Amino acid sequence: EQSRKQRGLLKSAIQALRPGGRLAYCTCSFAPEENEAVVDWQLKRDPTLSVVEVKLPLDNVRVGLSAWKQKPFSPDLARACRVLPSAEMDAFFVCLLEKSSDRPRKSKRR
Fold first, then answer.
1. 81 is known as an active-site residue
2. What is the mean pLDDT of each run of 10 residues along the chain (110 residues)?
3. How many whole angstroms separate alpha carbon 80 and alpha carbon 35?
């Protein structure tokens, strides 16, 4: 299952991230189980992570999903981006994560 592999990759990358560090989690997939579901899974396991708002200057951008298959995701995922396919580019997903040392999760703006 691809989402299991994605969870492992994200978990490893976050373990290597220093406090205050940022990680861009990006996929070329539009599948929620490889995108929002993976980030949501990690957010539930690591209270040092927060989602930093991503703003892209594109017309074909949508916010991250708040639920999928009637399963709610963290509302923080609305700060992630889903880029719809266009004549210039393929679809992709991007979520910017920041690791704090001991602060509780809170909103971040970029």
1. no
2. 89 94 94 96 95 94 96 97 94 96 55
3. 10
